Predict the 3D structure of the following.
Amino acid sequence: MSAIISITNQKGGVGKTTASCSLLAGLRQRGAHVLGIDLDPQGSLGFCLGLDIDSCATIYDVMRGSRPIREVIVPSECGDILPSNILLSAAELEFNRAGREFLLKNALAEIQDEYDYVIIDTPPALNVLTVNAYVASDGLIIPMAPEILSLLGVAQIRETIDTVRRCYNSRLRVLGILLNKFNQRFTLNREVLEMASQIAGQLDTKVFETKIHTSVSVAEAPAHGESVLTYAPSSKPALDFQALIDEITKEYTPFPRTETTR
């Protein structure tokens, strides 16, 4: 049985896609079978990993029932990917039938036991796509930049998490808040860390000990169709993400799968 983790924050620009790419790459390097799902209509996850997202089938086709999930999965150096593109932006209007919150969960039921980890990159919004990610997931990682508006976005997620737990997925938990683009020398960064710790307490979680530092390599990697872990493995952010994976896997290892499920 796979561990399904959504990377989520309704605020854009906090590093969700960078975190998703890095977790996929790092877990793949450690021998895990991984699947990345792009639920953002911008298609950033697939684009950052070098996929031609404009000419391939996407998760939108799977959720609307026009393509089987196995036909849409695309291999990459960081693992298998279910890509998206701008067509997914129609989801809020098109997916309006009863049970729409379970579209992703139902689609994954066919294949999830073939993977150790499923990483879901969510859109910068609290909409039907985000709810689908939460319903399908066991855990959430909330990345945030060290700025006040990013902190506000984290606080507003709580209501959506509580609703999903109450109505659709009681096992959902927040694995931790991840501080991204962090610089300990800046006073605001230290202040945001303190406030993030308070919000983590309200979400019954923690701020990860690992903080992701900024580097030009993070911005350069997508242009080469790679994660920062494969593009610049010795860079500070790459080493930070490796440390984050250590934190996650210490307490969140999926159930072992038999060879027949591979």
User: Anything to note?
Assistant: The domain at 3-248 is CATH 3.40.50.300 (Rossmann fold). The first strand starts at residue 3 and ends at 7. Residues 148-167 form the longest helix (20 residues).
